[in-house]
Amino acid sequence: MNPSSQFDRRGYTYAHEHLHIDLSPFKQNIDCRLDCYALLVDEMKTLVNKGVLNLVEVTNRYMGRNPQFMLDLMQETGINILASTGYYQQDFYPPHVAQRSAQQLAQEMIDEIEHGIDGTTLRASVIAEIGSSEGTITPTEEKVFHAAALAHLATGKPISTHTSFSTMGLEQLQLLMRHGVSAERIVIGHCDLRDQLDTLLRITETGAFIQFDTIGKNDYYPDEKRVATLLALSQRGLLSQVMLSMDITRRSHLAANGGLGFSYLIDRFVPMLLQAGIPQQDIDHMLCTNPNTFFRGQE
């Protein structure tokens, strides 16, 4: 049995997070190597105590993924982690991505879903985070999206994407749908980094999900605007297609290192939503019902 498959439908879910990721070689910044096991144990235990029982870990291969790290965290803290397979974005691809076919790349994903990651018992439950560049989807990125679609069609696992600064989300959706993926099995990531209500309405009208998953990253886009957009979606009855998360990626994001920490979403952002007039039922949809629906079959 896949340890990451014990999806707990009773609890809240963070839909787009990282627990062990290393983008420091690319960004030339050691802060971008998140590997702080003891601090993460404390943060995960706190989340569980607050009712967050599931976390979707979207670090894929060549981003510093560490399956044993995730297995150990699950064992020690009781949180359920859904691991991911795939490739991130053009700037982070290893050379072989350009050389291999979509079918070959898809088979790599399928193997991690069906047989396990790096020789461990942890199998991938999500095809994520499949990314595109800012303002464009490069030909190689298109190939990876095709591979993700093939892996989905072979396994039924949902696809979670990365948009660079909230660009190309609609195009990602259309590309995946052209390759045969149903909109309801796609969630477009990072939809909360710019003003784009019209685009979000076009995405949700297809039946796809969207993520407001950079909550707390006010340097990029203020939480007050995230709340305002969520209120606009709530007034249109669309929060049944929205999921929430924080996309923590750096050592400095952890509470013990002076950052907001994983609990910020529950402790500070949810009260902002309530104060804005978004009902608790909608919040429960975004943090519980919607992930239950989207990640169905992961139990």
From TrEMBL:
Question: What keywords are annotated for this sequence in UniProt?
Answer: Hydrolase, Metal-binding
Which Pfam families does the annotation name? PTE
Family matches, as SUPFAM superfamilies: Metallo-dependent hydrolases (SSF51556)
Return the similarity comment. Belongs to the metallo-dependent hydrolases superfamily. Phosphotriesterase family.
Name this polypeptide is given: Phosphotriesterase-related protein
| Organism from which the protein derives | Serratia liquefaciens
Q: What is the lineage of its organism?
A: Bacteria, Pseudomonadati, Pseudomonadota, Gammaproteobacteria, Enterobacterales
